[in-house]
Amino acid sequence: MANNSSLGTAPVTKLILKLAIPTVLAQLVNLLYNIVDRIYVGRIPEIGSLSLAGLGVTFPIILLVSAFAMLAGMGGASRAAVSMGAKDNDTAEKILGNSTMLLIIFSVVLSVVFFFTKDYILLRFGASPSTLRYASEYITIYLCGTIFVQLALGLNMFITNQGFTKTSMLTVCIGAVLNIVLDPIFIYGLGMNVKGAALATIISQAVSCLWVVKFLSGKKSIIKIKLKNLLLKKDIVVSIISLGISPFIMQATECLIQLTFNNGMLKYGDDAYVALMSILFSLMQLIWMPLQGFSQGAQPVIGYNYGAGQTDRVKKAFKVQFTVNLTFSIVAIGMVELFPKLFIGLFTNDPNLISIGTNTTRLFLAGMAVMGAQSACQQTFLALGEAKVSMFLACLRKVILLFPLALILPHVANLGVWGLLMAEPISDVIAAVCTTVMFYFRSKTLLK
Length: 448
Prior knowledge:
Elements: H1 12-41, H2 48-85, H3 89-124, H4 132-143, H5 146-160, H6 165-189, H7 193-216, H8 234-268, H9 271-307, H10 311-338, H11 340-344, H12 351-365, H13 371-383, H14 387-408, H15 417-446
Helix pairs in contact: 1-6, 1-7, 1-9, 2-3, 2-4, 2-5, 2-8, 2-9, 3-4, 3-5, 3-8, 4-7, 5-6, 5-7, 6-7, 8-9, 8-14, 9-10, 9-12, 9-13, 10-13, 12-15, 13-14, 13-15, 14-15
């Protein structure tokens, strides 16, 4: 799009598809950063399963890094979209500048803290003496590129919310394709194993970061990064964080959940089950990311028109988003339930992992079938500026439901691993129903 005026005038369905499809592709390509690492690492001769388990226990740290990118990036981008809808681009630029500085501060603090505490944290996250070495090697190199990860993820949302979804997709594609090329070279060609996977990732993120910063500083961007706007202002920071806290909690609690599941699998199972969790969380993201991507593609339409007072367009945009997301989640989970071995085989050729993973995959992912509704309602609350409601819903699924269930169910009738796995679909279904019902009643007030 040449500008964002069509957000308030173009046909809603066509507009959402135009914005969302590149965003979904960008999310899927972005997911390749972690999935490709796991696919290659899981096939390293002799140490593949242990290395895969090692990567699995580093993922909570990686999630926490991206959670802070969501805090400043999604919170700021959503605020900026509303300001742009109200024809206040000056405020939108100030929000962009403050978000950029927050991302820089977060990256420095996180790098320092995790670097000095990584081994202790990894052991707490489910690493065993056999897998700690591989986990530590990967995360040590990854932390050196935290600033690139933060800026690439956080600032790319400002490109999406201006309507430049093709550019935001290219941002991710450039890095992901480079990662796919570099992974086998570093892992196998140079014999760097898991260290090679980490090095390929941060080099790729650095290239994406440079692309994003260049675009947001150039002529094509409607709002631009300017030095004068990097100075933090309390009211702007508070507005960013108040809206970004919901996606932050969603991502940060995912870190807590993975910590709980990795430790539980090590306690009730062994390293093979920890490796299996790495695969299951990857498959979950493979389904969740397109849902998030489509919702993020619809956000500029919803946010802009809400700011412009065009509630009919907001309602239509939500209906399109809800229908597409729910249909996708049902179809995707149907495929997993029918062909679990096919999906597990993407990550490993270990017969033991495939054997123990077939029915566990079916059970663990079953509740994701209704997560299309959860995603659509949750992200629409965010686009409408409903920070408190969105934060509660972010806590509901992971903190209020899944976390306690994951601790309690393994002890019920000595279910062990199976009790741990059952916690996920139970919390998914309850959270989706509650979120949908809450949106139904709250939206009547917001969109009168």
